[in-house]
Amino acid sequence: MRAVKAAVVVIAIVGGLGYYVWDYNTSPTGGKAKAEASASAAAEEAKTHDPEVGDCVKVADPKGKPVPTVVDCGSPEAEYKMGEMLPGQGQECSAKYDYGIQYYNSRGFDYTLCFTKVRASVDRVLRVGGERLTRPVRARRSPASRPPLPR
Known about the structure:
Blueprint (H helix, E strand, L loop, with lengths): L1 H25 L5 H17 L7 E5 L6 E5 L8 E8 L11 E5 L7 E7 L4 E7 L2 E7 L14
Antiparallel strand pairs: 1-2, 1-3, 3-5, 4-5, 6-7
């Protein structure tokens, strides 16, 4: 009788452990799926802080530890546009760039990201003698949007 009780306890423990492993690997709301979703979200978040040439960014803490976040170039949040990535330690951006961020990696892959400032004004394209010219134009207020004069 004692052996039967011991066998039942061992079977219950092995069965419970087997169920836990099966549930962990197959449940769509927990376990392995939850860990994979978390890793995927972290990878997506990292992409937003890893701009490529031509991406517009806003920079958090530009004078301290700058963190560039990729934003839409048409958005009012866009501050800079990435122009170049210079591999190597101690690289300096050329004078045509307005801002640079240097990254130092313990594995030895150091690089500098160079950015140009995004214009805050609206650009208007003009054609003069068949040639395209771009000039900044300030937005004008319509008479209806002006505040009334005091009487």
